């Protein structure tokens, strides 16, 4: 349960991304994030978050194939799961150290990759990142 020295944020957003280039897709993007910040000591702070994102897009594209053209049409659904945590240590007024871990899992289905006629095609990637950082202020 959150205490007075904790901060909990829940954010949700849904928007339309309409790129100007004809090679990019219009996308409806949905994103939900829960973040928790905790003051462990006067100069040590913890942060944890979990996030889910989804984008759906439609496209229609004509591609030249030799002397003919092929029409590539389809919809694509991309889902991402993120979570991670950080420790921030204010060493003094001018120096801050941080240690951060982030996990991302992305899965994409459908879209123009299906021109190969592979039913149920799914593209995925996973990323695990650990960062150690120092920031200095004047």
What's the gist of this structure?
It is built from no helices and 6 strands.
User: Main β-sheet, in a few words?
Assistant: 6 strands, antiparallel
What is the count of structural domains?
Answer: 1
Terminal Cα separation, in Å? 37 Å
Helix content: under 10%
Going by helix content, strand content and strand pairing, the class is mainly beta
Q: For the CA atoms, what is the radius of gyration? A: 21 Å
What is the 3D form?
Answer: elongated
Share of residues in strands: over 45%
Number of beta strands: 6
The H/E string reads EEEEEE
- Average the pLDDT over all residues and give the rounded result: 82
Q: Which strand order does the major sheet show? A: 1-2-3-4-5-6
Catalogue the unreliable spans. none
Record the SSE blueprint.
Blueprint lengths: L5 E12 L8 E16 L2 E22 L2 E23 L4 E16 L11 E15 L2
Antiparallel strand pairs: 1-2, 2-3, 3-4, 4-5, 5-6
Give an account of the 3D structure.
- This protein is mostly beta strands.
- The protein contains no helices and six strands.
- The chain has one domain (11-62, 69-115).
- It is 0% helix and 75% strand.
- It has a six-stranded antiparallel β-sheet, with no helix packed on it.
- The chain is elongated.
- The mean pLDDT is 82.
Task: Provide keyphrases for this structure.
138 residues; mainly beta; six-stranded antiparallel beta sheet; 0% helix
């Amino acid at each position: 349960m959150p205490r007075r020295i904790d901060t909990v944020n829940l954010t949700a957003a849904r928007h339309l991304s309409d790129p100007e280039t004809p090679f990019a897709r219009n996308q409806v993007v949905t994103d939900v994030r829960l973040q928790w910040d905790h003051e462990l000591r006067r100069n040590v702070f913890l942060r944890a978050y979990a996030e889910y994102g989804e984008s759906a897009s439609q496209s229609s594209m004509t591609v030249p194939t030799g002397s003919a053209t092929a029409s590539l049409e389809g919809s694509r659904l991309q889902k991402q799961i993120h979570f991670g945590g950080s420790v921030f240590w204010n060493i003094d007024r001018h120096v801050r150290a941080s240690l951060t871990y982030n996990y991302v899992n992305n899965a994409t289905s459908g879209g123009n990759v299906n021109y190969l006629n592979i039913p149920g095609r799914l593209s995925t990637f996973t990323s695990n990142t650990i960062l150690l950082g120092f920031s200095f202020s004047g």
